[in-house]
Amino acid sequence: MVFKTDIQIAREADKKPIQEIGAKLGISSENLVPYGHDKAKVSQSFINSVQDRKDGKLILVTAINPTPAGEGKTTTTVGLGDGLNRIGKNAAICIREASLGPNFGMKGGAAGGGYAQIIPMEDMNLHFTGDFHAITSAHNLLSAMIDNHIYWGNDLEIDTRRVVWRRVVDMNDRALRQITASLGGVSNGFPREAGFDITVASEVMAILCLAKNLEDLQERLGAMIVAYRRDRTPVYCRDIKADGAMTVLLKDAMQPNLVQTLENNPAFVHGGPFANIAHGCNSVIATTTALKLADYVVTEAGFGADLGAEKFLNIKCRKAGLSPSVVVVVATVRAMKMNGGVAKADLGVEDVQAVQNGCANLGRHVENLKSFGVPVIVAINHFVTDTEAEVQAIKDYVAAQGAEAILSRHWELGSEGSADLATRVAEIADSDEANFAPIYPDAMPLFEKVKVVAQKIYRADAVLADQKILNQLKDWEDQGYGHLPVCMAKTQYSFSTDPELRGAPTGFNVPVREVRLSAGAGFIVVICGEIMTMPGLPRVPSAENIKLNADGDIEGLF
Amino acid sequence: MVFKTDIQIAREADKKPIQEIGAKLGISSENLVPYGHDKAKVSQSFINSVQDRKDGKLILVTAINPTPAGEGKTTTTVGLGDGLNRIGKNAAICIREASLGPNFGMKGGAAGGGYAQIIPMEDMNLHFTGDFHAITSAHNLLSAMIDNHIYWGNDLEIDTRRVVWRRVVDMNDRALRQITASLGGVSNGFPREAGFDITVASEVMAILCLAKNLEDLQERLGAMIVAYRRDRTPVYCRDIKADGAMTVLLKDAMQPNLVQTLENNPAFVHGGPFANIAHGCNSVIATTTALKLADYVVTEAGFGADLGAEKFLNIKCRKAGLSPSVVVVVATVRAMKMNGGVAKADLGVEDVQAVQNGCANLGRHVENLKSFGVPVIVAINHFVTDTEAEVQAIKDYVAAQGAEAILSRHWELGSEGSADLATRVAEIADSDEANFAPIYPDAMPLFEKVKVVAQKIYRADAVLADQKILNQLKDWEDQGYGHLPVCMAKTQYSFSTDPELRGAPTGFNVPVREVRLSAGAGFIVVICGEIMTMPGLPRVPSAENIKLNADGDIEGLF
């Protein structure tokens, strides 16, 4: 069998004008701010006008721990959204925007795959509607204003060794990770160590994704800590007086982007915070707006459920007052086999036993998600090589757990293949069974929150942290940050902090290496491993092969 | 009398949907790529489809040397465009885009002023259609790929001390002027000195503004010199294999932006190269497209005529095969007075003698411009404080020179005030009197070209240059760059290199401090003074007062 590539399918799509897509959600064309004919932002004034409406049902799509086999979480999110529309429901999709820079290292990717994709794929991998450029500008304006403040006399008494606000660029550029800035003599300022992160790692990105509206955005930007004085007291963004201008730079970016699936159903693609040093979900404003406009909103969280769904539920839902009606856990036969010990090269061979062995990983995620009080269903994202016996093995395992697994063939068939899944998901959502609550209260001490996540979700024996880290958490509690949730940063490949430990490991500890306060975003980042905030390019970057061909089509990006 | 501010007038404008503006030029809405409701790009396919049409008449607006009194060159460009439409002509305007970063230092500005403006003003001072962000990305992709090439083994044998390709950011950030990059150990690369310029100073910007189409764009990008080897042989962008991906990043930015005047006439706002280290005109593709769609195209060049018009005529027109039908030189009574020795504080007092004395500056520009074989007319941009006698003094001076000066009151009255000017300009353009030619041929040696400009335009006695510079020019001639035009970089405030020398100075020399090859843009930059490629922020940056007010309007940007 020969399959079309994602980009071939995407280019053949019967794309509708974005105004037609908006109309499906009751958005008139005056309330859509178009960016080309197939992308638009939903105007702030329209968003304000629908705030009194009733919310639709929120459906979270998450997954097992990612494996090199691929799980298809976004593909399933899109397939489920199309499936719901197919069975006559008014449904919208909410996913994250892609970062520009990394596409020039490794190839860019579709939003979804096969016949379950969001388009226009090229634009979404390039400048899209300029949101990330706006974030880059706002971030770097603050950076320039900090150094400018120091240059003109440093009235705020910033300790130039303790400027924690770096610069950002949406490019994989390892040469900028660590630099010495302000060289060249008197007119260029006071030399100091500095550096750049990739734009998605910016706290401004996390804030844009958590802010309820423009006022909240500005408030949070102002609350960001940018430096410390010699006495260790913090200097805030609002002390630099950058928060107003940053808000002006971000006002368009705050409006959610509307695009469409291959089947012309509405999809919001907005925000893209790093899933490790931030919470890794699409924007609150896109999700809350979608909930006002659609009866069902399908969204996803980054990485596996231990990391992405945990932060979606404990951070995004808590902060935004969201309450999911059902959680869909995506699994595949191939990924179960890898969790069961099969090497990638051997995934094509039927191996029911390996599938059964690997299901322990899925089972633990299902169990964890239930602990948030939300009904859970498993979606088996079908690969054409899967055998019936293998699929049945997953279904049996999940049934034995008291849950349900449904095969979905959206990749191959579009909504025709996901109608069954959509039907069950809608039934569960409509049953109002959900009784969602985060798994720790605001009032719990910070280190206790870490322990709850590590022990209840990861199933670690203990959390290990130096006295220095414990003292730091205590200091923040004393400064009034004790109510914040914790934003865990650990490997996505395992429940543990060892990426090699697949399945459902036990008998391990979680060491905390570092903690960081994101005072504007409103969480404490708890780092349990290496964190790379500026990627590098590979030996042969994909950029070398990216070009326009004679027809004006982009080659080499996918 | 109380006058409204530019932003008040702009916000009160009766703005039309951009599709209506496009229709005036025969562009259907499918061929407009909208960015919001009041901005659009003209699609590349439409541009390709009109290449066989006859060109309209090109009208260049330039000015005397700028003074703190203000001349209103853009205001006159807009007023003339509106005036031509008022008298029943099909006319379009072409101007440059504004840079984002500097607005956060000093206040941003209108495109034009009073009742002769282009809107939407807020967007044009912020992200607009993202062109400059695209240029920043393309530029920095190349930067990252250069350091990445060095990191992975440096097969091209780049001398890391001689990487001439810097990075850019569209922000006034003096701390980035000079940095040490790639610090932090083995994984971050090989430490070297580096730095950032502001985006408008990028050679990519100059190329975008000179490229005829996407193929030409990629060709020119590939030809840029990014570094030298130890043996001084150049390393090109195409050696790094970045030109294809850069072209992909720039493909949307290459499409000209269409907006409107307060009177709903079409205006192309596209490209914004630095007027000193580049040629300082809007894009060739916007100008050539406008000429296919309108009978009259009014455009402007940066700074005074000695710098901006000289480069427009010798570089842009030469490269793009453009031929202006008439040149309009903007002068004001106030600026004539300043050239005549009056201090800014005293400009409100009638002083006919000072006006007469200052006219020498205007007179020399008129004479210079005639030497290009193009008819010249003077537009007196009226200020409400001008007296009749002062205006008459300019008219008389110009008449004595065998030319004509027309009073234009577009700032106060819009097209009603510029109809006379428009009528005469159209008559001259229609007379086909022009017989344009650049003032030096391609084949002239490089240093001779510099001498021609310095002696014929500036009226310098001699050009002074070290043997080192002469040798450098000779080397480039040997390498095949001898046919390039020279891009002069000197103060805009005087014909000489001394900004204090107003009027029409004589008896001075022009010292050349440095020469640079912009092999992709296709010119030799000849630097006759300080050049600042990265501005800094002032003690109190305007950003501190920029914010959204309760109505969602931007405050403090203007």
UniProtKB/TrEMBL annotation, chains A, B:
Domain of life: Bacteria
EC number: 6.3.4.3
Binding site for ATP: T67, P68, A69, G70, E71, G72, K73, T74
GO-annotated biological processes: tetrahydrofolate interconversion
Pfam (any one): FTHFS
CDD domains: FTHFS (cd00477)
Keyword terms, alphabetized: ATP-binding, Ligase, Nucleotide-binding, One-carbon metabolism
Catalyzed chemical reaction(s): (6S)-5,6,7,8-tetrahydrofolate + formate + ATP = (6R)-10-formyltetrahydrofolate + ADP + phosphate
Gene3D superfamilies according to UniProt: Domain 2, N(10)-formyltetrahydrofolate synthetase (3.30.1510.10), Formyltetrahydrofolate synthetase, domain 3 (3.10.410.10), P-loop containing nucleotide triphosphate hydrolases (3.40.50.300)
Enzyme class: ligase
GO molecular function, one term: formate-tetrahydrofolate ligase activity
UniProt pathway annotation: One-carbon metabolism; tetrahydrofolate interconversion
Family according to the record: Belongs to the formate--tetrahydrofolate ligase family.
Descriptive protein name: Formate--tetrahydrofolate ligase
Native species: Sulfitobacter undariae
UniProt lineage: Bacteria, Pseudomonadati, Pseudomonadota, Alphaproteobacteria, Rhodobacterales
The gene coding this protein: fhs
